[in-house]
């Protein structure tokens, strides 16, 4: 499925001018049909999966309890 720049911006939740810049810099692959740029939606699937994976890893890391320090001596 191909998206316009406007649809891609909505899909990725970033401004249209940033999408245009990424297309010009060839960071996003796009086709020009003579009137507008068309962007293949599936090129973002792997990226979005990776982002979700790293979010889960960070969340797990933040929720992990801090181990008790074995070097602390009891002062009593």
From TrEMBL:
<dbReference type="InterPro" id="IPR010093">
    <property type="entry name" value="SinI_DNA-bd"/>
</dbReference>
<feature type="domain" description="Helix-turn-helix">
    <location>
        <begin position="2"/>
        <end position="49"/>
    </location>
</feature>
<dbReference type="Pfam" id="PF12728">
    <property type="entry name" value="HTH_17"/>
</dbReference>
<dbReference type="InterPro" id="IPR041657">
    <property type="entry name" value="HTH_17"/>
</dbReference>
<dbReference type="GO" id="GO:0003677">
    <property type="term" value="F:DNA binding"/>
</dbReference>
<keyword id="KW-0238">DNA-binding</keyword>
<dbReference type="InterPro" id="IPR038148">
    <property type="entry name" value="Tn1545/Tn916_Xis"/>
</dbReference>
<protein>
    <submittedName>
        <fullName>Excisionase family DNA-binding protein</fullName>
    </submittedName>
</protein>
